[in-house]
Amino acid sequence: MFTSQTSSFQDSIDVEEKDDFDSEDISGYNQKIQLNCYYAIYLYQGTSLTLIDSSLPPEAEPELRTYISRRLSKGALLGGMGNIATVELSIPEKAVGCYCCLLEQEKSPEQPDTDGNGYVICFMGGSEKGLNLFRLELDKYVQGLQSSLQSPKLENFDMEVRPYLSRWYEESVMHIHRVVQLVQNNISFLLHAALSHILVEVINSDDRTKADVSRFIKAASLQGLSQQDTTTASLCKAMSEDTQTDLIIDCSTSPPTLTNTVSNRFCDDWIQAFLNAAERCNPFLLRQILENFKLKAIQDMNSLKRFVRQAEMSHYALFRCCQFLQGCGNGDVLLQNARAEHSDLPEACSIIAVLEEFLREQSQAQA
To answer: Which end of the chain is more exposed for a tag (fewer CB within 10 A), N or C?
Structure first.
């Protein structure tokens, strides 16, 4: 029983050995080098596509424009929704992941017939699979251009729009890498805080670092992934009732000082995978590891729910529950979630109370 559990966990951590991100997908990432990334912005009016600016080599830009025109003619670019694919261009990488988004112009009384008009924003770098891991971040980043593109003749282009486009990779993709580089071995404390819905406060730092940590915690949390929408709200309420202490990251020292730290064996076991990917400067692999971390936590939560249901009718199932919690290394977090989700089920709450007592005894015995 527990052999397969251990094997599954190791498979989750060993993502860098899998075909998901083989040398074809992460070309250039096995060495510590900076990825080449590009951008392009076009004015789209009716069926006409006019280049405004691009960081692509001159010979590659017309190829991209042809690709975009083809996508637009097929209705594959919807307003405000990014589309990611692999494109072949005359660049050193040959084939590259390409994110495209159509930002439609807001209608005005002077120009009521502007349907389909707007700007096409393109970001290129890494692989299609890698960019797909950051689709939400890229969508949000493009939306940040909406107000800047409303000025009549883009008078603010050189001062605002071009620098913004140039930073897409640093701002939308590299934040997880920066956080791992910042806290290093302490990444397990952030992972545990994210799973436990504990607030993380960053002090004595710049706004970018605060934003990076906030985005990391959001990306590592299970919010929106639970089977029941009420679970997260119930868990947050349960956490506040338990008077959990915020995790503090003080950046006045180098490396930062963390206080009120809590972790467990499950989170500790992922440290090396994060550090290895960060050492290779591979933000795409880092994001995949983070997604695998969340997936494994969700799988264990579902296993515990199943065991709790079985334990209501079988003492042997209760014994299996205890064994499972002891083996997974994430018992504290799993029981917090289970307690919140089963708060209106007396029998399940009784079983969870027994399991919590079991974990406390195990912890005291190992102390």
So the answer is: C
CB 116 within 8 A of CB 135: no
Give pLDDT, residue 242.
Answer: 56
Between CA 364 and CA 17 the distance in angstroms is: 37
- CB count within 10 Å of CB 35 equals 20
Specify the range with the lowest mean pLDDT, choosing from 61-65, 186-190, 357-361. Answer: 357-361
Tell me the one-letter amino acid at 300.
D
Residues 6+ apart with CB under 8 A from 167: none
At position 105, the amino acid (one-letter code) is: Q
The token pair at 113 is 């017939």
User: Other C-beta atoms within 10 Å of 341: how many?
Assistant: 24
Check whether 230 has a pLDDT greater than 60. no
Q: Under DSSP, is residue 23 helix (H, G, I), strand (E, B) or coil?
A: coil
Coil, helix or strand at residue 121: strand
CB of 185 closer than 8 Å to CB of 271: yes
Q: Are 15 and 289 in contact (CB under 8 A)?
A: yes
Radius of gyration of the chain (CA): 24
Residue 314 to residue 308: CA distance in whole angstroms:
10
- Could you tell me the two tokens for 342? 């089963």
Q: Identify which has the larger pLDDT, 307 or 274.
A: 274
Task: Collapse the DSSP code of 74 into the 3-class scheme (helix H, G, I; strand E, B; otherwise coil) and give the result.
Answer: coil
Helix (H, G, I), strand (E, B) or coil at 105: coil
d(Cα 210, Cα 215) in Å, to the nearest integer? 9
Model confidence pLDDT, tens digit, residues 56-112: 999 999 999 999 999 988 887 877 789 999 999 999 988 999 999 999 877 665 555
Residue 59 three-state SS: coil
The one-letter amino acid code at 250 reads: D
Residue type at position 116: G
> How far apart, in whole angstroms, are the C-alpha atoms of residue 39 and residue 26?
19
- Which helix (H) or strand (E) segment holds residue 93: the answer is none
Q: Which residues does residue 245 pair with via DSSP β-bridges, in sequence order? A: none
In this prediction, residues 155-172 reach a mean pLDDT of 93
Residue of 339, 345, 344, 346 lying closest to 235 (CA atoms): 339
For 98, half-sphere exposure in the C-beta direction (CA atoms, 13 angstrom radius) is 27
